[in-house]
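fyi for ur records
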Amino acid sequence: MAKSILIFPLILFLLAPIGLTETVRFEHPRFPSTFAEKMIREFNLFPERSVNVVDDESDVVSEKKLVEKRFVFPNFVDSSGASVEELGHHAGYYKIEHSYAARMFYFFFESRGRKTDPVVIWLTGGPGCSSELALFYENGPFKIQKDSSLVWNEYGWDQASNLLFVDQPTGTGFSYSTDKRDIRHDEQGVSNDLYDFLQAFFKEHPEYAKNDFFITGESYAGHYIPAFAARVHEGNKAKQGIHINLKGFAIGNGLTDPLIQYKAYTDYALDMGIIKEADHKSINRKIPACETAIKLCGTDGTTACMAAYLSCNSIFSSIKSIAGNINHYDIRKQCEGSLCYDFSDMENLLSKKSVKDALGVGDMDFVSCSSVVYQAMIMDWMRNLEVGIPNLLEDGIKLLVYAGEYDLICNWLGNSRWVHAMEWSGQKEFVASADVPFEVDGSEAGLLKTHGPLSFLKVHDAGHMVPMDQPKAALSMLKRWTRGSLSESANEPESAVSSM
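which gave:
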């Protein structure tokens, strides 16, 4: 990564190139659009269109609010020979109710266990990166092979839940609009769209409406998830539409409270031997300006938020310039290419006509990481999304914050600090509670602290993508958390992945 770049590839594999749109323009001479575009091209994640805004929507999706079909990937290797009906795999479009012309694409995988298992929705970050990244490389039902074939993922979260992956905000993945006014700029717009989607989804699938419901995700979803959870809880309290049985929300290696998390960068980097004491002291001189800008962002709006983005990310870029070719998603590794990972197998798969036909997306482009969506959310970046969480905790909605210990960009230290600093009725007891081993099959997979509805888990031997690096531990975490037994030791039997 070029040393002068201020772009913060935070959140899940960003890095979408930060191009210029009609609605938001930044003329700052150091704004890294050219560098970002180069990085995305080398990452094989540069779509023909940087956002799915189309001129002609004919034959893409009907006027129904939700259009869904059962499907089987044409290159899925399934030794059981299960039928479309037996697999219970769905893909669909939701016509976003409060939009001009937006359609949200999603995957829904029925549980390989019981239909009464919880409904779990997964949100990928970016902002503007598709949840298919998680589907194929982390916790979805499949593993993707080099020849673009798919095989069962024995640790897919559909082993223990009815699993939803959503391409959002509009313009991400296969989601699209015919009107640029549908591009979202803040968490209110994002969470309202997701809430409307859930209402339509449960209307289409009333048999799942009474199941426990959990919101999960990663990276910039540390912003999405608290806002979405608050919107669902608000809708339930106001008796809007279908009651959604929200039980909890989980944030993996996320960005939630920038004021606390940016200040943790230098401490984490020093603790992990990435920088030296003199570097720590030097880079820390940037923190006061970052703090001031973040506080102004919270009160003065857009200009201050852009200043905060630039000022605070200079802390990260300074560490990166010292660290060299370190993989900022997993500091044990070197970067492979500009963005450290290669997801081109997914790109190739989702560009195939046979796959698009199976999914019912017509000739839509698949947009892995949208530059337009990314830039549209820039002013949202430095907002503090921790502020709405205490009310959820007080009402008994569970929160799990987990983080792989070798991730730099959304490191466990910063996440631990904001969780401990959060003011709620159980704060004192949570802070005083001891770390206990999180064991999987008799081995310590992490360290867990929990009190009441709040839990924090530091996951061993994992980077930014815990379900990819430690799939067995991640599945065990999900099972035990959704069942209310996170702090209990568990021996997980090997899954019979071909059984339905």
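The CA atoms of residues 57 and 178 lie 7 Å apart. thats all i got for now
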